[in-house]
Amino acid sequence: MVDKIDTVTARNKLQPQRESYWHRLSKGFYVGFRKMSADTSGIWRVRYRNDNGKQVERSLGTLDEHQPSARFDRAVALAREWHANESTCAEGPPQHQSTVEDACNAYVQLIKEKKGTKPADDLASRYTRWILPDPICKIELSKLTREHLNAFRRRMVAVPVKINKAGDTRQRSKDTVNRDMAPLRAALNHAHESGMVATDFAWRAPLKAFENVSRRRGLYLDLFQRRELIRCAPPDIAAFLRGLSMLPLRPGALAALTVNDFDPRLSVLTIGKDKSGQDRKIKLPVETAALFFEAAQNRHGAVPLLIRADRNAWNKDAWKGPIKDAARRAGLPMETTAYTLRHSVISDLVHGGLDLLTVAQISGTSVAMIEKHYGHLRSEVAASALSKLAL
Questions:
Q1: Thinking of the domain 223-387, which architecture would CATH place it in?
Q2: E strand spans, 188-340
Q3: Are 363 and 346 in contact (CB under 8 A)?
Q4: How far apart (Å, rounded) are the C-alpha atoms in residues 237 and 300?
């Protein structure tokens, strides 16, 4: 049976492969569809044998700007447009040459399909910040060179980091550069896997992460210090700090919680906007549930659960200054940040003997990441367990 490509249902049944599936339009003239993996939307192609007997084949792109049901018709229209003008047949069809921006958009769409809207929006915001304003954005993937990527890497390293409201800056850490380069590397790898570009040679080395630059978060606040930080903070940020001190959440995930995310009847909190991509539910102990029960009183819907005094949601620009001020009044290190609390809470959970899988699940990260950064804290737990074996 001939594999069809003219409907969405038929294309979904195709087995991923490097070779294209072809639909005959006329003698020697075909429109094709290539799908190299199940996670990609596929590339449309056209093939024609000219008067000299030479077979010419070109890409028409993903056509993702069109609805899936309309892509076959659009591919046929583009192919016929080329075919109608015999003088251009030798040069190939009018085609969309995919750019770095196209690769980023395609990867955002993939993440949206696999993980949902929230992680896709977060990824899109990163591209908006780092890729769209950069000269690399409009370069065609087929023309991308190592020098383009090396120059992009140098520009990333050169971007300073603001350290205070006065506008003072410091050099960006290589660990931060690694995190900011990763989304582009992922988009380009996906473009290669989906057939948008023939080789990954251009970025394979230039976008390789700096090695041995990731380090553990060194600043740890014990329970007394966390209480002092909260005591020295204004009421609105104090409630936010209490949440960070009782749950191993990323600050952004806590700030994104709405009243709808807390079920007071079951004392269950649903964590949505987070790097993990998937919503997860946490059953809260009585003391922790009380914080969110109080915050949700007489409020309903998709409004922020923990709000600022001006009734707006918290964000990193809003919490940074108040936390620094509270740390100063509490006599804590000035390196204290919102993430310091997350690190401290995870450290306590691991050191307290909670298994790494559960720690990873409630904190929204991988077991491998917990093992890498907190596994050393298990040594005392292991020693305690071994002591019980003594004869």
A1: Orthogonal Bundle (1.10)
A2: 262-263, 268-271, 280-283
A3: yes
A4: 21
Reduced to 3 states, what is the DSSP secondary structure of residue 17?
Answer: coil
How many whole angstroms separate alpha carbon 7 and alpha carbon 3?
A: 11
Three-state DSSP class for 282? strand
Look at residue 333 and tell me whether its pLDDT is greater than 60.
yes
Helix axes 316-329, 338-351, angle to 10 degrees: 70
User: Could you tell me the sign of the dihedral formed by the alpha carbons of 331, 333, 338, 341, in that order?
Assistant: negative
3.30.1490, 3.30.160, 1.25.40, 1.10.3470: which CATH number matches 8-88?
A: 3.30.160
Which residue ranges make up each domain of the chain?
Answer: 8-88, 100-204, 223-387
The distance between the two most distant Cα atoms of the chain, rounded to a whole number of Å, is 91
Please identify which residue in the block is written with the tokens 């380009």.
188
CB atoms near residue 5 (< 10 Å) = 23
Q: Is the pLDDT of residue 165 over 60?
A: yes
Q: What average pLDDT does the segment 345-366 reach?
A: 89
Q: How far apart are CA 106 and CA 99, in angstroms?
A: 11
**pLDDT surpasses 90 at 328:** yes
Residue 247 CA to residue 257 CA, distance in Å, equals 13
Return the residue matching tokens 């056509």: 63
pTM of the model: 0.56
Tokens representing 338 are 């919102």
d(CA 225, CA 239): 16
CA angle 241, 245, 248 (to 5 degrees): 115
